[in-house]
Design brief:
Distance between the termini: 36 Å
Number of domains: 2
Protein name: KIB1-4 beta-propeller domain-containing protein
Strand content: 25-35%
CATH architecture of the largest domain: 7 Propeller
Pfam family, one: Beta-prop_KIB1-4
Organism: Quercus lobata
Helix content: under 10%
Largest sheet: 5 strands, mixed
InterPro entries: F-box_BR-signaling, KIB1-4_b-propeller
Number of strands: 25
Length: about 400
């Protein structure tokens, strides 16, 4: 019998070089320690394809399996592809966000963890009780907020797969406050703001060029936060605002996203149609994306401008931290397109039969057309489908939790 674990390292590298899909990299590294070592050594010197994949909603009453739809396998005509089932009990029944290749999970017990969806490693984050006080008693009441609706967005400044020097930033609560924690913190640190009841923040992103977090409000105002400061706080006024001559292009109902793309910061407006007017206390029952408008943010003295094309880039938007990739580098990824998932933030939508997940697709910047990004239906009242960027390496400084904890 052949001992596959004793294959020579050079031979293993030859095999790795012929693997076309990220999913198969994961499977290769799971064979044994020597195969995993060769993959890790190879990944430090070579670029492994990491096309975002679509993590589907969990099926009601199903097992701990979670589907991941791979764009790498999409067909050139229409939407084909393959859904791989991943055993992921750590995400079962939990609200999830996605950032830097990791999931952020929030459970009914109010515990928050970082979870690597393919290696099933976990990192504990500070408990929600270190952040909430008066609000905590309302979390289990369905008529108000719940554990699955209290956070609007959670993003990472860097991947825990690559460094332990990362920051977790969260938008939370009824008035969109901000808090952050670092690796190893025992509690969340609230960020000082001067407008707790006036602003409605829609997205936050870590912008590497300035080493700061930037967030956007519902008026197109972009605020900055330097968490390296001894007393971190949001700037009292926007560092820049979408100018009026461009703002007139925005519809009355829009979602804003911030995304770093090719070294610049972009503001993306997702234009929505409300097919059924909102009813107080019942949520918005019907809505649909009709298009997107992309702006280059005027930071550091530069002027704002509307982008008519993304060129070779593709954007991935939703409950994940916003992603930009060079499309030609990835099989199955269409350039000059915006891939989006259902992320309407009205918490009452969590009680709509079927839940979120209806409004997903691929928007073409060239002709304004929208086609499906998934050839089926996947909906959830807790965690609708979202984009996940695969990651491989794990630093030795990160504590590992047993897979079934």
């Amino acid at each position: 019998m052949v001992d596959w674990s004793s294959l020579h390292y050079d031979l293993l590298v030859l095999i790795v070089r012929r693997i076309p899909l990220y999913d198969d990299f994961i499977a290769f590294g799971g064979v044994c320690q020597s195969w995993r070592f060769s993959l890790k050594q190879y990944s430090t010197s070579q670029r492994i394809p990491k096309t975002p994949c679509l993590m589907l909603a969990e099926k009601e009453g199903s097992s701990y399996l979670r589907g991941f739809f791979s764009l790498n396998l999409s067909l050139s005509k229409g939407i084909g592809g393959m859904t791989r089932q991943v055993l992921l009990p750590q995400a079962y029944g939990k609200m999830c966000f996605s950032s830097q290749g990791w999931l952020i999970t929030i459970g009914k017990n109010l515990r928050i963890k970082l979870l690597h969806p393919f290696l099933r490693l976990q990192i504990k984050l500070p408990h929600m009780r270190t952040l909430f006080h008066q609000e905590i008693k309302h979390l289990d009441k369905p008529v108000t907020w719940s554990y699955a609706a209290f956070f609007d967005k959670i993003v990472l400044s860097a991947s825990p797969s690559e460094t332990s020097d990362y920051v977790v930033m969260a938008i939370y609560g009824a008035y969109e406050k901000f808090a952050f924690c670092r690796h190893g913190d025992k509690s969340w640190t609230k960020i000082r703001t001067k407008f707790p009841f006036l602003e409605c923040f829609l997205d936050v992103v870590y912008y590497n060029n300035n080493n700061k977090f930037y967030c956007v409000d519902n008026q197109g105002g972009v605020f900055a936060c330097d968490i390296r400061s001894p007393d971190p706080g949001l700037t009292s006024t926007p560092v820049t605002t979408l100018p009026e001559e461009l703002a007139h292009r925005i519809s009355d109902v829009t979602l804003f996203y911030l995304v770093e793309s090719s070294g610049t910061l972009l503001l993306v407006s997702q234009q929505l149609d409300l097919l059924v007017p909102p009813v107080w206390g019942e949520g918005i029952n019907e809505y649909w994306t009709k298009g997107f408008i992309v702006f280059e943010v005027g930071l550091d003295g530069r002027e704002w401008k509307e982008l008519k094309s993304l060129d070779n880039r593709a954007l991935f938007l939703g409950h994940n931290s916003s992603i930009s990739v060079e499309a030609f580098d990835f099989s199955g990824c269409i350039p000059n397109c915006i891939y989006f998932t259902d992320s309407f933030s009205d918490s009452s939508n969590m009680r709509i039969p079927g839940g979120g997940g209806r409004d997903m697709g691929i928007y073409n910047m060239l002709d304004g057309s929208i086609q499906p990004c998934y050839p089926g239906q996947s909906r959830s009242n807790v965690t609708p489908p979202m984009w996940v960027v695969p990651s491989l390496g794990i630093t030795n400084s990160i504590p590992k939790v047993a897979p079934l904890v």
